[in-house]
Amino acid sequence: MSTQQRFVMNTWYAAAWEHELDNTKNLLARKICDVPLVFYKTADDAYAALDDRCCHRAAPLSMGRVEASCLRCMYHGILYNKAGKVVEIPGQTHISNNMKVRAYPVSAKGGMIWVWMGDAELANPNHIHDFPPLVDKTNWRGFEKEAYLHYQANWMLIVDNLADFTHVAFVHTNTLGGSESYAYESVPDEVDELDTGLAIKRWHKNSAPPPFHQRVIPQAEHDVSLDRLNDIEMHIPGVFLMKTQFAPAAPEGKSDASDPHREYRNCQYMTPETWNTTHFFWNYLHNFDLDNAATTTSLKDSLFEGFMEDKVVIEQQQLLLEQSPDFVPRGIGGDKALTVFRKKWRERLNEEVADNASSGEHTSRPVNIRALI
Ligand code: FES
Ligand SMILES: [Fe+2]
Q: Which class is domain 3-127?
């Protein structure tokens, strides 16, 4: 009998912000794609990821101790190197070759530790989606410590949410949206297919500043109509990158605002913990008021409020979907982006399953995502 493969494994997953490992133990237990992992930071500030289960008697290595570049299991003291190989067994000199746990490729970029869950030989850190504002402190200011939320929902439901900003009008009327007119007056441009996902632009012309933006601009500008652009990329497995610009509404006859006034950059990384739970990482950066911590704090509070509005809806969706496995969603025009993204994700999963089968590595079949979400 074949097993069912649920996740694309040959891809980089956002695993932890670097600051999450700056704790007294320099390590973190985190399950990704159903696999319990331990991440640790070595004495020379490199990162490692191992299966979080000692090969001796299955104690969690995340209860262990970092020693230089190694990690010691604090049950019977076995010491592992970064490659997952046992290099010391207290009280014995012989170490057999099968004394090891799996090690996973990791790479730090943009303050995030990324992990590769599949075939280590295919892992290329250049394929991690770069988001330069995260490290460009000259032009952008974001949170001092980037943010994390835990979701009781499948990651693809959060991807769906971000793939259709119509919801901004109804879920976030008084926070991120401003009015229900956003759903009627702003229509996304065509969905552009990318190799690893999609891109969408959505203009909202000649509109009042939404509440989160109004809170960080001078009172005198509260009544100035703006052209608002959200320029989005979504990449497999769940990498959302957005440029937002607000500019004074373009004069009659001009197609768009040519003078960006204030801009934001937003990343949201959705990583499956299990099929029904998700790690959600985010930051929100501004290119104005760079010396003003109050602006950053206000934006963080506003966005957090908005994300909690999403979370309530999405976690309720998850519950209802778990209770109604036969549910078949009806489509509307606004589903174009999520449909494209699921198609591309599905193709990647199918390719991986076929490759594994032809190399004789696993016999598995891809999960039926439609039945579950
Ligand atoms: S369980 Fe880890 S050393 Fe025994
Ligand atoms: Fe939202």
A: mainly beta
Q: Which of 78, 87, 92, 100 has most ligand 1 atoms within 8 Å of its beta carbon, as the pocket-test mutant?
A: 78
pTM above threshold 0.85: yes
| Torsion angle of C-alpha atoms 306, 307, 312, 314, degrees rounded to 10 | 120
CA of 9 to the centre of ligand 1 (A): 28
At the fourth CATH level, the homologous superfamily of domain 132-334 is: Naphthalene 1,2-dioxygenase Alpha Subunit; Chain A, domain 1 (3.90.380.10)
Confidence of residue 371 (pLDDT cuts 50, 70, 90): very low
How far does the centroid of ligand 2 lie from the alpha carbon of residue 310, in Å?
5
Q: Residue 64 CA: which ligand 1 atom is closest?
A: 2
Ligand 1 contact via 73 beta carbon (within 6 Å) = yes
Asked whether 227 and 247 are in contact (CB, 8 A), the reply is yes
Q: pLDDT tens-digit profile of 244-257?
A: 999 988 766 555 55
